[in-house]
Specification:
The complex is a heterodimer of chains A (646) and B (200). Chain A has 646 residues and is an alpha/beta fold. Chain A has four domains: 235 residues, Rossmann fold (3-Layer(aba) Sandwich); 121 residues, 3-Layer(aba) Sandwich (Rossmann fold), CATH 3.40.50; 174 residues, Rossmann fold, CATH 3.40.50.970; 75 residues, Alpha-Beta Plaits (2-Layer Sandwich), CATH 3.30.70.20. With 200 residues, chain B is α/β, with parallel strands linked by helices. Chain B has one domain: Pyruvate-ferredoxin oxidoreductase, PFOR, domain III (Pyruvate-ferredoxin Oxidoreductase, domain 3). Chain B is built from seven helices and six strands, in the order βαβββαβαβαααα. Chain B has a six-stranded mixed sheet. In chain B, helix 2 links the parallel strand 4 and strand 5. The longest helix of chain B has 25 residues. Chain B is globular. Classes of the chains: A alpha/beta (646), B alpha/beta (200). The interface between A and B is large, with 68 and 70 residues. Bound molecules: thiamine diphosphate. The site of thiamine diphosphate has 23 residues of chain A, from helix 4 and helix 18.
Chain lengths: 646, 200
Amino acid sequence: MTFIGEFDLVHPLLYPPGSVVLLLGNEAIARGAIEAGLGFAAAYPGTPSTEILESLADVAEHYGFYVEWSVNEKVAFESAYAASLCGVRSLTAMKHVGLNVAADALMSSAYIGVEAGFLIVSAEDPDMWSSQNEQDNRYYGLHAYIPVFEAYSPWEAKELVKYAFNFSEKFKHPVIFRSTTRVSHSSGPVKFDVVPSLKSTGRFVKDPSRFALVPAHARKLRVKLIEKWRSICEEVNNSPFNKYIDNGSRRLIICCGTGYGYLMDCLKILGVEGKVNILKISTTVPAPRRLILDALGGCDVALVIEELEPILERDVKAMAFEEGVECEIHGKDLIPLIGELNIDKLIHGVAKFMDVPVPSNFLNPLKCNIEIPTRPPTLCSGCPHRASFLELKWALAKSGVRDVIFAGDIGCYSLGVDEPFKVQDIMLEMGGGIGSANGLAHASNQFIVAIMGDSTFYHACIPALINSVYNKSPMLVMVLDNRITAMTGHQPHPGSGFTATGARVDEVKIEDIARGVGVKCVETIDPFNVKDSIDKLVKAIKFVLENRTVALVNSRRACTLMVVSNARRRGVRIPRYLVDLELCRACGICYNQLSCPAITPMPDKKASIDPILCFGCSVCMQICPFNAIKPSETPSKDWEEVWRVN
Amino acid sequence: MHSKNILLVGVGGQGILTMGRILASSAIRRGVKALTSEIHGMAQRGGSVVVHVRMGDVESPLIGIGMADAIVGLEMMEVLRYIQYANQKSILVINDRIIRPPMARTIPTKNQIISELDRLKLKYVIIDALNLALKAGSEIAENIVLLGSLIATGILSEYIEITDVENTLKEVFTGRALEVNLKALKYGYDACRQHVNENI
Ligand SMILES: Cc1ncc(C[n+]2csc(CCOP(=O)(O)OP(=O)(O)O)c2C)c(N)n1
């Protein structure tokens, strides 16, 4: 998806060979895979990886490969991996923490190896722009004996993906392609090459001694793996993506991934271009030993630049030690360990290493003297989660339940962590809310509410729900079912009723799953119907208190952002709500307790609704104790209709 | 280093990502290297959003502190939030609009913001993008209005012209959306030209 998807005339991935197109890094990765003859792709969304599969899905029909949004990363990995075993070139993509979910399969895949090229794209998030940690998955490569390649830009990403597919197929081994936010979500010019004919189905040729990891087979495969790894270690020395620039200096900078682009710009800013030797590495795991030793050989001092962990740095230091190379090696002593790299962070270490001053703009930036309030992300106006949270809190109060732990999870609803809701007391990882709720329910005397989104429910909550039935964990499970994976940009899931490529399918219903695994109290609410929702929530809370076991409430209402963009596209009028200032008593319930961004207090504390921000959910009208809020017009039939998108 | 650095700032939902891509695409169609960098996910939910656009002889996507040639602000407070990217030569193109963060207790007034820009001796133009967008036909076209204003400052004249942006819009939008955006671009361009003429 570039620009605003619905207005696209030509999809960026469909331009003819020879075109130079502005591509997002993720689209460049997708294009690289297409130019490598991709036949199968499976992923689970997660920032910053999402647009890889999203853009592949857009053009799947055109090129004839298979694409799916899988239920989670483990299944995505296993599906794509199996396609490779059938001789079909395949790819799986996920955010860095997604690889934790798929790690079990990852480890085994190295023992078995692959048939056709198989690429695991790990899109990582240094600085945690949209993530709960900044783990560096190059460690997974070392851990599993799987090579990890990294690019510094969209144009390099496309080429490196093609190389990685060939590499994988040559060694019959999986390859991890590591991207980071500033590659995945940067865009730049990318030149298109021809798309070869592809194979989207093949044949699985049975060979249990290789494909079935019983201990007897695994022991033999482990020996083979180590042999294979030795030849991979040799081969990376020949990669055209590792580049040595000899400027006849006694200083050397070794860099990998994004480090290269920032370094080149820093050297220009410092006016020391061409004054240092540079070894640019794209095959970080395993590090190209021969290239590194050759480059170190002629130098007195070296600096290793890499984002996050000192993985290459440790390798370089070990090599120098083993070979007795007399070179002083710097790395994380000059380059920050925490957060992403950028010019501002690199300039200091590079200037010090090059023995030149840091330009003054980096030392004395302009400073604003007035206080600017923070602007944390918030739930959108009209978001059904906001209504659900309010109803949940009111229902708990109505039931006389005060001491509550809200076991939260990951999605848009994580924003409920802040005032005024504060309904995310724990947030561990996807599925972690209901999992920890099981423990909380038995290890504390507090009332437990587990909150999760619909996509999160399918992803990793079902085993924990079964556990809560099996082990009788008293808790209220509240699913916020906005019909889609909203946080990552509206990807469909098993409950949405359609697939990645838009094909209609039967919905897998949350209520059916809950009843199927034995939950005895299952309710469905519409959060835009406040009174009825509170009544049903009260009923479910009572059930938990009386029966000391689990109850589930599914709060079902489509994501407002998605509905509003559909409404705009179809020219459907959005009914706006207005405050009758005669009736408003300035109680503040609408702007304090509902805290909708469209509603602000005026100087006299009466409410005012911004007609541009109001998306017509009507919840403020329903909760106003003085009937002071009214629609500006009767909502049309078409408006009711757009809410039933899926 | 021959390059231009444009920082786009505002609030999630204002179309800042689209703006960055249209700007970069317009450069690329002229054979100029252009890079953008954006943040998706959490940051788009009404949070503060910043997009870096770099053109010319550049290898990495993020602008250094004090190195922005222009800052385009779709919201006034956001301009001050990222003011460290500006320098005395930068041009600021600012939407005449304040969006209150929902839970903020106090926010600065427009006058306070403008005096702060004056204290820092910065060059700026203030554009009423919302009204121009509404005049063009849609409240969501503020981004394109300001894109027109940015072009009118002349800061990018060695790389792109207004017609390049128009051509990009024609490649991205059709029908009514195209009509609205072409108008928005022109209104923003004209409004800024008027300012530039008055002030020079
Ligand atoms: C293991 C893992 N995979 C993916 C993500 C990225 N991610 C964050 S929230 C989310 C899903 C949110 O969807 P949903 O549960 O439906 O809630 P919504 O955002 O729609 O409210 C995803 C996929 C993640 N954080 N961890």
